[in-house]
């Protein structure tokens, strides 16, 4: 079995990156003879020469280049372990749970989360996608460290930052209704028509009536994109976040049925966490990025 030490690999790396044995010794704060001894012991273990010493400057042999390439991967892993140990020593969380709501513009939220992940490689982000009260339930039950959704801002359990506003518009496919769309249109006029609604993912919280016509037949779906397709196919009418249907409204694939009685609703989105004193180091860092 080849007995290679990390000391030998670090010595080899220093000599190559610094350009000479003398510079490598200075970088390592070692004597010139001790560096030569470490390299010779490594070559003896390998049974081949790492360096061509015939020229003015020593250079890696063909075998030496292959070996050094593999050694670099090992040293990178060692450095990564060192960073990870420091991360753990500082009690920094190794994972965070983020719940994102069904009407949250994903691009805006994910761009921040992507930046966090790139800057903090030892903290894994678990992304959870829920609907309606299911998002809030995740936070209140301790299953999420942070949510991007809408909340009751008067509820003192929440600490929040404003994240944006979303318009919710009632829409249909052009040929869906058998009556004309006009400014006096009421929800009572839609009772006979199927409505597409989002299925709430909450398990224990009381579900709320989010734009649901109580006496209409419904199609229940699990996400906004499926809901949009059902509406586009003329199978139902429904309320959609405006950012998901801008193209369809412009092209005429969908039309708004807003009227004096059926109005656009503005929903305030927030980044929220539980209003408690202590949050983890990485949770606090992510919070400050929003």
Instruction: Calculate the mean pLDDT score and round it.
Output: 90
Which percent range describes the beta-strand content?
A: 15-25%
Main β-sheet: number of strands, strand sense, barrel status?
7 strands, mixed
The helix/strand class is: alpha/beta
Quote the CATH topology of the largest domain. D-Maltodextrin-Binding Protein, domain 2
Q: List the total number of helices.
A: 9
Number of strands: 11
How would you describe the overall organization of this protein?
It is a single chain. A hairpin with a 6-residue loop joins β1 (51-52) and β2 (59-60). The protein has helices at residues 6-18, 21-28, 32-46, 62-89, 106-119, 133-140, 224-232, 246-251, 281-289; strands at 51-52, 59-60, 95-100, 124-129, 146-149, 158-172, 195-198, 218-221, 238-241, 255-256, 265-274. It is built from nine helices and eleven strands. By secondary structure, it is of the alpha/beta class. The protein folds into three domains: 6-89, Orthogonal Bundle (Arc Repressor Mutant, subunit A), CATH 1.10.10.10; 95-163 and 269-289, D-Maltodextrin-Binding Protein, domain 2; 165-266, D-Maltodextrin-Binding Protein, domain 2 (3-Layer(aba) Sandwich). It starts with 5 loop residues before the first helix and ends with a helix. Helix content is 38%, strand content 20%. The mean pLDDT is 90. The protein is elongated and about 95 Å long. Strands 3, 4, 5, 6, 9, 10 and 11 form a seven-stranded mixed β-sheet that branches.
